[in-house]
């Protein structure tokens, strides 16, 4: 990772957050000016609204400053936080109870995520000793040759099980919903039915889908799926996008249940663009 490029991305993220807080401060100032001529405004003149503007500006400057150091946990040498969650699949054979799946999404290998970050992630994954490692998309933000070099450590990922169907459990993966636009190859297009074709009706089916919106398709079509594992949203990554993500994505972050369908959306192992996280964190879900 080029230090200059990394610094530019950090500054860009800080500027975006500062612009939002500056807008918030301006709105508070406008409210204060509107109220100052009213009886309520006179009562509040030396109270909350009088302090709101400098407080908002202070929050903006503080957040912008602190966000610059909230870069990749791996780069800071702390390791990626591990979120542990227990999900019960009724159709899963009793012999497979306790199966551990490590869910990893959104590596975004590119200008701010390089081979050392990927190698650190792999080391941490192997230390967890999962039965299955599920990578659910957005691996690269860089051209193919550069990606292959930086992603090389992924070949060292170790998992106890590595089959599509394992004694009553079927792991199915569906291509991204934008694949139809990105390629003319029909084999790479989004096709939920084809992705599930190898699964038997009696199997406990876990569907790996980068975008959580696939869950809506699975539910509306009555697909034979027990659990859907996704990423993509980053849980908004940093404020104020953390609020926007909750409004845009019905399945934004965490565990959801709709009838018999269970959905889990991870916030991602890395980040997109600026290496910043506020009001959310990167994670490995286990």
Automatic annotation (TrEMBL):
The chain crosses the membrane at residues 48-69. Keywords: Membrane, Transmembrane, Transmembrane helix. The keyword Transmembrane helix applies. The lineage of its organism: Eukaryota, Metazoa, Spiralia, Lophotrochozoa, Platyhelminthes. The keyword Membrane applies. This is Metallophos domain-containing protein.
């Amino acid at each position: 990772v080029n230090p200059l490029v990394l610094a530019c991305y950090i500054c860009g993220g800080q500027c975006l957050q500062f612009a939002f807080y500056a807008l918030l401060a301006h709105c508070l100032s406008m409210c204060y000016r509107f109220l100052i001529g009213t009886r309520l405004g006179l009562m509040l003149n030396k109270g909350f609204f009088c302090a709101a503007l400098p407080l908002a500006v202070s929050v903006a400057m503080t957040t912008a400053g602190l966000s610059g150091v909230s870069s990749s946990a791996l780069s800071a040498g702390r390791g990626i936080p591990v979120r542990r969650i227990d999900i019960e699949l009724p159709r899963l054979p009793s012999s497979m109870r306790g199966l551990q799946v490590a869910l990893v999404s959104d590596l975004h290998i590119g200008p701010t995520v390089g081979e050392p970050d990927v190698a650190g992630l792999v080391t941490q994954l192997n230390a967890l000793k999962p039965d299955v490692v599920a990578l659910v998309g957005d691996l690269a933000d860089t051209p193919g040759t550069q990606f292959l070099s930086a992603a090389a450590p992924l070949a060292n990922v170790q998992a106890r099980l590595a089959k599509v169907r394992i004694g009553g459990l079927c792991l199915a993966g569906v291509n991204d919903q934008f694949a139809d636009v990105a390629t003319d190859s029909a084999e790479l297009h989004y096709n939920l039915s084809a992705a599930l074709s190898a699964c038997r009706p009696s199997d406990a089916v876990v569907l790996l889908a980068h975008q959580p919106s696939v869950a809506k398709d699975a539910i509306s079509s009555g697909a034979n799926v027990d659990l859907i594992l996704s990423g993509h949203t980053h849980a908004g990554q940093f404020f104020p996008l953390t609020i926007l993500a909750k409004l845009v994505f019905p399945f934004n972050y965490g565990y959801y249940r709709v009838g018999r369908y269970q959905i889990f959306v991870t916030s991602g192992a890395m980040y997109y663009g600026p290496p910043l996280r506020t009001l959310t964190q990167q994670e490995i879900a286990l």
